[in-house]
Amino acid sequence: MAKKNRKKKAPGGQVIATNRRARHDYTILDTFECGIVLVGPEIKSLREGRASLAEAFATIDDGEVWLRQLHIPEYSMASWTNHSPRRTRKLLLHRREIDSLYGKVRDGNKTLVPLSLYLKDGRVKVELGLAQGKQDYDKRQDIKRRTEEREVVRELGRRVKGMTA
């Protein structure tokens, strides 16, 4: 019997794409769930699990949030109605959230980075993070902390095995 290809579950649904590099390169200060404006073939391509957040980022222009450089490949079954794979897409947020984000991005060296793209109740959602860039020494400290935590878990596992044996 063949195993089904199962995707991880997001806070509300099936994950389409994640930006693992974002958590490595940035410190995530806050996250927001937002909708995204798509055209017909794009949603069909996303339901197939085809998207890349690798180079994507968000900007605030004229009081609206735009997602740039998100790559959604063309849907193979669509004809002349296909979309441009890297077109700029509008993100849907409440006005007070946009105003808050605009103030935070304008004031300091912060940026808006998409963290994940997922389906929730049949709609595509973007988890958008307010991020601040990490320096090299911050990245090294994170790696050191993770290895120390792994060693502690390993040692605890050895002690538990030693007590039961």
TrEMBL record:
What InterPro entries does the database record attribute to this sequence?
A: SmpB, SsrA-bd_prot, SsrA-bd_prot_CS
> What PROSITE patterns does the record point to?
SSRP (PS01317)
Major subcellular location class: cytoplasm
Q: Does the keyword RNA-binding apply?
A: yes
A Pfam family? SmpB
Q: Name one GO cellular component term.
A: cytosol
Q: Which UniProt keywords apply?
A: Cytoplasm, RNA-binding
Q: Where in the cell is it found?
A: Cytoplasm
Q: Name one GO molecular function term.
A: RNA binding
What is one process in the GO biological process aspect for this record?
A: trans-translation-dependent protein tagging
Its job: Required for rescue of stalled ribosomes mediated by trans-translation. Binds to transfer-messenger RNA (tmRNA), required for stable association of tmRNA with ribosomes. tmRNA and SmpB together mimic tRNA shape, replacing the anticodon stem-loop with SmpB. tmRNA is encoded by the ssrA gene; the 2 termini fold to resemble tRNA(Ala) and it encodes a 'tag peptide', a short internal open reading frame. During trans-translation Ala-aminoacylated tmRNA acts like a tRNA, entering the A-site of stalled ribosomes, displacing the stalled mRNA.
User: Can you tell me which family this protein belongs to?
Assistant: Belongs to the SmpB family.
Any idea what this protein is called?
SsrA-binding protein
Gene that codes for this? smpB
